[in-house]
Amino acid sequence: MSDRSLETVADDEAPQFGELSPPNRTLMGPGPSEVHPRVLRGMSTPLVGHLDPSFVEIMNEVQELLRYTFRTDNQWTIPVSGTGSASMEAAIGNLVEPGDTMLVPTNGYFGGRMASMAERAGGEVVEVDAPWGEPLDPADVEAAFDEHQPDVFGFVHAETSTGVLQPHVPELTDIAHAHDAYVIADCVTSLGGVEMRVDEWDVDVAYSGPQKCLSCPPGASPLTLNDRAMDKVLDREEQPRSWYLDLSLLEGYWGDERAYHHTAPITNVYAIREALRLVAEEGIESRWERHLDVAGDLKAGLQDMGLEMNAPDEYWLPSLNAVRVPDAVDDAAVIDYLLEEYDLEIASGLGDLAGDIWRIGCMGYSARPQNVEFLLATMEDALAEQGFDGA
């Protein structure tokens, strides 16, 4: 270290940067989606303390709005302080105890992440298999339960890596509950954009991220647990390995007591409150229908160009369209061209589908006709640059 103290460093030696000016992108990738202007305005609201009576009222409102969006009456419904991965880890790390067995899917990238989190929580992981690009078959889930008798079953409702929507959710939950297991649903790319009914479909725990169909910056991530799941959490013999995500401690802050646990990300809570108000104003079922209609136009336009969807129609995920990369087309070159020439973001494949698909989001505020028209026109140009004519 220099002999000089920090106080003696000349001002001209301090780092100098200009004002923040990121490019103005059209976000049509797997997330984040474009943020609604009202949400951005909400984030400029002055801060109050995280135990201020006015903020406690905001917390109550956010919880009620989350219940509406999840379609649940669960008392234990909160925004976890962190990204969607934090709500994911809160769900798995609290429900899975050392010695528990968790059944996870192999049909996408995020089933693998479930497995990793369950193992870190001290659980034993077993798998129910399905190819990447296909949903789980209830018969295979039943067979996996008969073989392994897991304590917890996790599935991905909307698999961001493959563009596949998991049908038959009530069938899956019925199988799990017949074996006295708990069900965790990954709703990161479906909440607020694709039909999801936590109570009616008998899901014990569901988590999501705010930056997808809710069109909210990441930082406060939805999580809901029913009484049965929360009883398991509160009756654990061994504490969860994460203090920060320990739901028995967070219960003191988000429950009736409102006792200090950590400093909540106040601006992010403002943001998700406004994002959820937009959901309620539009109406959740109308919002599901908008995503279906706008994404349907996107899908039809891509197919008119001669492109193929990765998922069959019956498993197609409106909020995340996985599009097969044609032979002799460089997927990365198309992505780079759209970004450099048009400030338009789409993404490549993950895991087993890396290089084979493009992932095109149609979520939240990004799910607008003008965005779809822009994407189709620019995609046609990018493909022409590659010599693809769709014939």
TrEMBL record:
<dbReference type="GO" id="GO:0004760">
    <property type="term" value="F:L-serine-pyruvate transaminase activity"/>
</dbReference>
<dbReference type="GO" id="GO:0008453">
    <property type="term" value="F:alanine-glyoxylate transaminase activity"/>
</dbReference>
<keyword id="KW-0663">Pyridoxal phosphate</keyword>
<feature type="region of interest" description="Disordered">
    <location>
        <begin position="1"/>
        <end position="34"/>
    </location>
</feature>
<protein>
    <submittedName>
        <fullName>Alanine-glyoxylate aminotransferase apoenzyme</fullName>
    </submittedName>
</protein>
<keyword id="KW-0032">Aminotransferase</keyword>
<dbReference type="GO" id="GO:0019265">
    <property type="term" value="P:glycine biosynthetic process, by transamination of glyoxylate"/>
</dbReference>
<dbReference type="Pfam" id="PF00266">
    <property type="entry name" value="Aminotran_5"/>
</dbReference>
<dbReference type="InterPro" id="IPR015422">
    <property type="entry name" value="PyrdxlP-dep_Trfase_small"/>
</dbReference>
<dbReference type="InterPro" id="IPR015421">
    <property type="entry name" value="PyrdxlP-dep_Trfase_major"/>
</dbReference>
<dbReference type="InterPro" id="IPR015424">
    <property type="entry name" value="PyrdxlP-dep_Trfase"/>
</dbReference>
<dbReference type="InterPro" id="IPR024169">
    <property type="entry name" value="SP_NH2Trfase/AEP_transaminase"/>
</dbReference>
<feature type="domain" description="Aminotransferase class V">
    <location>
        <begin position="49"/>
        <end position="349"/>
    </location>
</feature>
<dbReference type="InterPro" id="IPR000192">
    <property type="entry name" value="Aminotrans_V_dom"/>
</dbReference>
<keyword id="KW-0808">Transferase</keyword>
<comment type="similarity">
    <text>Belongs to the class-V pyridoxal-phosphate-dependent aminotransferase family.</text>
</comment>
